[in-house]
């Protein structure tokens, strides 16, 4: 399970051979993704299966990881589990991509090989929300409140003794 994944692969050959690639990729190996996480220390588990569907070479698989994103409310780290499935059909042109006869996303093959790492990174980037946030209310109330008090009332409310003094006065 801790096998290292190859990067550049020939998807047509792999499809002919019905190859299965399972392994682990480090988050730190993916540059774009690394720029979006607070911690690049984690692993990404990948299971990619190559096959033929009709004449079409397809690759389908699963990607699993836990990212540490920055919460857009409190700017603290936020664990973001990702489990996604993908299914791509190999095409050699954009026209071919437009007229895909099967229910797949296109995987454009420019030369002989594609980057498996790029493919995985693209899928993960698509799964990251634009504004990740903690599910709970992560900003304490006193931080989000507008602080347009004058200095006197500020010290008064922050000082428990002044509150006590007030209570004494009004309690009589
Ligand atoms: Zn938060």
From TrEMBL:
Identify the keywords attached in UniProt to this record, alphabetized: Ribosome biogenesis
Q: Does the keyword Transit peptide apply?
A: no
Pfam families in the record = YceD (PF02620)
InterPro entries linked: YceD (IPR003772), YceD_bac (IPR039255)
Function field:
Plays a role in synthesis, processing and/or stability of 23S rRNA.
The entry assigns this protein to a family as follows: Belongs to the DUF177 domain family.
**Alphabetized PANTHER family for the sequence:** LARGE RIBOSOMAL RNA SUBUNIT ACCUMULATION PROTEIN YCED
Query: What is this protein's name?
Result: Large ribosomal RNA subunit accumulation protein YceD
Organism placement in taxonomy: Bacteria, Pseudomonadati, Pseudomonadota, Gammaproteobacteria, Methylococcales
């Amino acid at each position: 399970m801790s096998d290292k994944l190859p990067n550049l692969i020939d998807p047509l050959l792999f499809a002919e051979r019905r190859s299965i690639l399972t392994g682990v990729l480090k988050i730190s190996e993916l540059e774009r993704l690394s720029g979006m996480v607070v911690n690049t220390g984690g692993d990404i588990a990948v299971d990619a299966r190559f096959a033929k569907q009709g004449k079409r070479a397809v690759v389908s698989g699963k990607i699993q990881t836990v990212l540490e994103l920055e919460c857009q409310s409190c700017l603290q780290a936020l664990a973001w589990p990702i489990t996604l499935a993908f299914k791509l059909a190999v095409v050699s042109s954009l026209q071919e991509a437009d007229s895909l006869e099967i229910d797949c996303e296109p995987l454009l093959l420019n030369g002989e090989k594609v980057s498996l790492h790029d493919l995985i990174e693209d899928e993960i980037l698509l799964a990251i929300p634009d504004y990740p946030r903690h599910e709970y209310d992560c900003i304490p109330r006193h931080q989000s409140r507008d602080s347009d008090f004058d200095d006197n009332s500020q010290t008064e409310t922050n000082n428990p003794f002044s509150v006590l003094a007030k209570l004494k006065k009004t309690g009589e």
